Amino acid sequence: xxxxxxxxxxxxxxxxxxxxxxxxxxxxxxxxxxxxxxxxxxxxxxxxxxxxxxxxxxxxxxxxxxxxxxxxxxxxxxxxxxxxxxxxxxxxxxxxxxxxxxxxxxxxxxxxxxxxxxxxxxxxxxxxxxxxxxxxxxxxxxxxxxxxxxxxxxxxxxxxxxxxxxxxxxxxxxxxxxxxxxxxxxxxxxxxxxxxxxxxxxxxxxxxxxxxxxxxxxxxxxxxxxxxxxxxxxxxxxxxxxxxxxxxxxxxxxxxxxxxxxxxxxxxx
Length: 269
Known about the structure:
This protein has 12 helices and 4 strands; from the N terminus they run H-H-H-E-E-H-E-E-H-H-H-H-H-H-H-H. The chain is mainly α. Strand 3 and strand 4 (93-94) form a beta hairpin.
């Protein structure tokens, strides 16, 4: 939609220009926030096995994703969100400023027996979201899923997020390739020289993995330093505290907007 004429309606023009700038800044800030939470090699690094009685990383990811059973497809949280809130997407590309809304939506669905179809699992998610550490881990995992989707669609707006994800994917590919190569070497050595050679190869592989992961972390640290002076990172810093407060409100159900949506039937109770 074209902006109103500056001459014909200067006040409306100023409002629309300001609104657009703030939306763009929020998209930038949230995208970088998600990227910083996501800066790990594996989902298991984002949500390691934790306290008994809380939902595992595997369970969380399985409910974020779609699940096919025969000819039946159960839409996960992400697909349902896309279907329910198309206005959060511009030409099919998600706008990251809605991430706080998405986390609230995810929480509402995963703690709803109506969506989960199991009181036991819904209660497990309720306990999990009540745990502060688990909550922030879930924010990171959900953000990673959404950011990866943006990356694959070419929809990332910030150089910082692009660099982080590219680095993560390259490091993952390197580790996967090393694993396959080491597996073949171990098999060949085992056939020729016995079990001890397999153990030696596996030990070397673990050493190489440690080196790759250490290098990855160092590269990320360097990236933070390099990008800290960029204008998009300064935008992020301007909103960083408000973004974190937003998620605290979501966790404690302090958002009147979410309460309104629940009452209106747009989110499950």
